[in-house]
Amino acid sequence: MIVEASIVGIFKTVLLILGAFVLLRFLGQLMIAKRNMEEERQLNKKQRDVESERNQKLKNFGKTSILNAKKKSPTKKEDDFIQDVDFEEVN
User: Fold this and answer.
1) What angle do CA 20, 24, 28 make, to 5 degrees?
2) In sequence order, which residues have a C-beta less than 8 Å from that of residue 82 and are 6 or more positions away?
3) Which of 8, 16, 78, 90 could bond 74 through an S-S bridge, CB–CB 3.0 to 4.6 Å?
4) CA trace torsion 24, 25, 27, 31 (10° rounding)
5) Which residues have CB under 8 Å from 74's CB, separation 6+?
6) What is the pLDDT of residue 90?
C-alpha cells in the first residue's frame, strides 16, 4: 500500500497540531488563573482573621477580667489518686 502525501493533507495535519497546542496552552492558563484565585481567597481569609483577632485584642487591651473559679469536688476517679498520708518523725 502506497500512501502519497498531499499539500492539503500536510496542511490539515499542521493545523490540527497547532490547534491542539493552542487548546492545551489555553487550558493551562485557565488552570493557573483558577489556582491563583484560590490562593488569593485563602490569603484574604487569613488576613481578615488576623485583623479581627487584632481588633479583638485592641478592644480588650487594658481591661481586667476575673474568671469565676469555682472549686469543683473531685470525682470518684480523682478520689482514687488522692490519699491522705500521716507522717511520723523518725529518730
Assistant:
1) 170
2) 74
3) 78
4) 130
5) 82
6) 78
Is residue 78 scored above 70 in pLDDT? no
Kindly calculate the radius of gyration of the chain based on its CA atoms and give it in whole angstroms.
37
Amino acid at 36: N
SS (H, E, C) the chain: CCCCCCHHHHHHHHHHHHHHHHHHHHHHHHHHHHHHHHHHHHHHHHHHHHHHHHHHHHHHCCCCCCCCCCCCCCCHHHHHHCCCCCCCCCC
The pLDDT of 28-47, averaged and rounded, is 97
* Cα–Cα dist 49/38, whole Å: 17
- List the chain domain ranges: 28-59
For the segment 59-73, the average pLDDT, to the nearest whole number, is 73
The per-residue pLDDT of the chain, averaged, comes to 85
Residue pair 31/38 in contact (Cβ under 8 Å)? The answer is no
